[in-house]
Amino acid sequence: MRKDARQKVVLATVLASITMVLAGCANLPATTMYTYGDHATRILDLLMIVFWMAVAVFVVVQGALVYTVVRFRNKPAATTLPKQIHGNTKIEIAWTIAPAIVVLIIAVLTFRTQAANSVMPPEAIKIRSVAHQWWFEFQYFNQDGVSLSTPIVVDDQNQPTITTATDMYVPVGVPITVQLDAADVMHNFWIPKIAGKTYMIPGKSNYLTFTVTEPGIYKAFCAEFCGEAHAQMHFRLIALPAAEYEAWKANVSKIPAAATGTVQVLGLTGDASRGAALFADAKKQCATCHIINGTDAKGKIGPNLTYLGSRTALGGAILPYSVDNLAKWLQDSNAIKQGNLMGRVIKKGTLTDQEVADLTAYLDSMKLSVALPAEK
Amino acid sequence: MSSSAGQAHHGEAHQKPLVGSMGVDSRKLGLWAFIGSETLFFATLIVTHLIFYARTSNTLSSVGALELLDPRLGYLAIELTTVLATLLLASSLTMVLALAASKARDWKRFRIWQLATILLGASFVGGQIYEFIHLYHEGLKLAPAFEMHLSHEAHKALTALNLDPSIVRLKEAGEHATALVPSLFGVTFFVMTGFHGLHVTIGIIWLIAIYVKVSRFPESPENPMDIELGGLYWHFVDLVWVAIFTLIYLI
Amino acid sequence: MAIAEQKLTSTAPTTKESFQWRSWLATVDHKKIGIIYIISAFIFFIIGGIEAMLMRVQLGTPNSTFLSADLYNQLFTMHATTMVFLVVMPMNVGIGNYVVPLMIGARDMAFPRLNAFSVWLFLGGGFLLYLSFLTGGATNVGWFAYAPLTQTQFSPGQGVDYWILGLGLTGVASIAGALNFIVTVLNMRAPGMTINRMPLFVWMNVVVSFILIFAFPTFTVASIQLLFDRQFGAAFFNPALGGDAVLWQHLFWFFGHPEVYILILPVMGMISEVLPVYSRKPIFGYSFVAFSGVGIGFLGFIVWAHHMFGTGMGPIANGFFAAASMVIAIPTGVKIFNWIATMWGGDVRLTTSMLYAIGFISMFIIGGISGITLASPPIDLQQTDSYYVVAHFHYVLFGGSILGLFAGAFYWFPKMTGRMLDEKLGKAQFWLMLISMNVTFFPMHILGTEGMPRRIYTYESGMGWEMWNFIETIGTFFLAFSVLMFIYNVLVSLRSGEVASNDPWDAATLEWVVPSPPPSYNFLHIPHVTSRRPLWDAKYPHTTADDHHGEKSAPSQIRYEYSHEDSPGAKEIHMPTLTFMPMVLSAGLTVAALGFIYINQAILGLPIRTASYVFVAIGIVMVFYAIRGWVLDSRRDSPYLGHH
Prior knowledge:
The complex is a heterotrimer of chains A (376), B (251) and C (644). Chain A is an alpha+beta fold. Chain A is built from nine helices and 14 strands. Chain A is 37% helix and 20% strand. With 644 residues, chain C is an all-alpha fold. In chain C, 63% of the residues lie in helices and 0% in strands. Chain C has helices at residues 2-5, 21-25, 30-59, 69-103, 112-131, 159-187, 200-232, 245-279, 286-299, 315-327, 329-343, 352-375, 377-383, 387-417, 423-449, 466-496, 534-539, 581-597, 606-637. The longest helix of chain C has 35 residues, at 69-103. The model of chain C is unreliable at 1-15 (pLDDT under 50).
């Protein structure tokens, strides 16, 4: 019976270790164990050292516990009292020092990694990300005009050259410093495969510097609870080779061409030019919240929708981009993302299906040609 | 909050009613621990106030407007507060005299000094209420901005600075000019001093209760300890005011 | 040895007394108050557990629509609030209330009426917190309520106000309780019960009480400031109006981190009582175990910002708080080694209580190790706010506090009720609980590592999180079943369990001297203590010789007491009289707090606002009535004023 128990414990420990290793082996969409950014890689390197130290401590201490219990478990035959030992100062000092040494090693390694991860190289590209309930905005600036020593402030004099949402484009192999801000409540910027978390705090700018090592599309989340739709506040980091990144920047800065064309959606034919007129119609309220560059739509509450047709995802990166999903979102965003602010105004039935189809055609018509890398 | 500590101790109860294994009265021990806790309470309030004051003064001095708009100089009347502080310090003295009288079992003298303490405390609270009302009319409110009346010269000097309206907004109404400054100074000030005033009020109620009890049962041997406890709390409340007065008004 | 060999039988009267409400509602007896704490905390444990299970069902499958986002957010906030403030804290206080006076040879707490006030006010706070579910939704901002989400513009309902005032009441109750513990332990010890002879459970209760009185005020102030923000537009934590969102985090965690030790240290004290008894040895390194607890208490005040590594404090501040946090591993390690050494060479009896104590150590090792990775700022940036941190604190709070509390429950149940719990059922429950808690919580480490953020009500499929989430959900059902087994065990044992003697475990401390359950006055004769293990040394006098510190003390003269309420001499022991006033005072404060929640709800129209004033007024009248009555009632117990 006791032997069984011991075997069980051993078995469970082995299984747990195997599980951890297996968990590390699988390159899942958001795992922190497969890294493609220097920030996350340095953390992973540190974690692996600490992990094996932890395994050693676990085995020693847990082993000592189990061994003690098994060896000294009550023997029915025993009639004498065990020796009444009250302590042993030498041993106690020894095992006060032992954890201190382990901790000291971890602390030194920690400070090394922390120092490396805090560097903001002057040549870094500076991008500003503003978190909103419940989506991420990304602003790009003329790099000559920004410095790393003072926060970027957006005002009449200083406007971003590019404003986008949900998809964050960066070049590969170049250090990026993101200025993290929040428009309403606290959020947290997390791209698990690229970098650790940093808070986005209203009234305080934070900075995160990382270099992406491989082109790819990376999942990213808001990691701090920020209200009703927190669970559905994601974004995607799209890392492109430098030349393609520059091409994207050049293209996305242009005003979209006049909307033309049709799409088939909801069994209807959506017309882009009709959609453009609807979008501009004050009664439909689209322009109250959204910006489309080169039009009269100048709302600042929701995301900038210029070139929406080229986004990889919708609704805070919770739906993959497609005309069908776009139409579904416009029909009833509440059903997809409870609590989202647009859903408080544009409810189910606010727009007719034909209007949805036309708006879909319009938004889908604004496209760029970008060769997207694979999802990592 | 009288205790059964004495009763728990095998028959000694009727000789030393409230003294336990520490050799200290239980209630006194408890009150000291409570005062430790209250210290953290006021420390948090004071630190919050200092943080936000520093922020306001940094912003104002960065635009060169601190001399004209410093809320501490602009609102806090050092004269009145000095009088209030003196009242409260004097009440600590009368409290000591009341306790001394009670130890000498001179109940008449005790009543005089205790009453003096109560009256001094009450005039402090009255002075504070007066100050609050005065500040409210001056434009310092429980709101995240204060509105300061400006002299003609100050208005001219501020106009010349041509300040960002998010830092200072100047308003003119007839001959009177005011400056509206976003700042939490009023909020932190009123919450901090208000909670202190509340503690003084509770202290006054406590001292009155002691006064009534001692007058009714002058022969009770618990009296000196009851008075000492009320006094201990009263000295603490005074000390908090000394801290607030020094940190907020003087430095 | 002579005493130990006596046939011990309980002499507790077996006549069935009819249950008297008055004797409970007006009680000032530390034992009854302790039991009220324990039962209430257990009921809240079941409620918090149900909340957890609802969440696990929601997360068992991706894209689940079992719960709405908002309800899920309410549930996780209330689950944490409940487990921290309404379960583990009051359970510790309840057991402490029952056991500490007995352990130090006292007849009651220092302030029995204040003690009653604490328990009723704690229940008032719990009532307010749960009332919010019925009045438009409970708080849904997370238990650490980060600003500025708590501002009215983002959280317009009254849930947050209920939370502030509910916790405000439990906070006052906790501070009052802590003051009571401090004075009781310092001032009510029996003759000879010096500080360094006190049982370690008593030690830890004092340490925790000191932590509590110094940590809670910061939270009280922060929540008052938040209340001013919400009710009077003060903007302390509203950056849009000049406030500071990060300040809330500093104030909250300055309280919140010591709070973690408030939850775990009393349980460590329990473990330090249970392990020696079932190993039939003294605790190994008494001073090291006691002072490591003191050390943890001190260090707990300088590590708060390790909850905030990602807020941009800068590498130097992060480095300081990281180093301070890692230092806590040292006293914690010392405790664990000393516990193992206590069993080493002992005669380890694997009773249910002992199994739970060993389970506690084992699980706490895991929680401690995962804590080290979180103390390292770079690693923390990946693991914080992910399921990894959820795993970490469930290992220390469930694997630690809850398992430890079960060790204490099985250990002291006979003392409190006079009946033994069923050991066989208890052991089955232990193994089921241990395994199912690991099934439930261990995969959370993996999910966090795989990038699953915490506090999400749903997740998309294809992230690779489905399997572990499903397994966790299954685990919770087994966990719930193990709790049901315990409830069944308690109910059956109360009726027909084996009758407990004074000292069923052959223990060492004073609570086992008196009958099970003890009479209202505890000790007929206040014991004279001569050593750390007064009862043990009386039973086994020859074992006292090799006392570690070489203290040569008089042989222990402790004898079992077989007294009851009508024992000769018991009538001369003066115990404080029953009084309803502490309860009225608590009720008054609760009513006033309830009214205050709506004090500025002009939006809801005049009637609500008027009603709120009426509530506040009624509450204040009750408070003054109760204080007056309290003073009058206490006069009856005063040897000098009672004759009027």
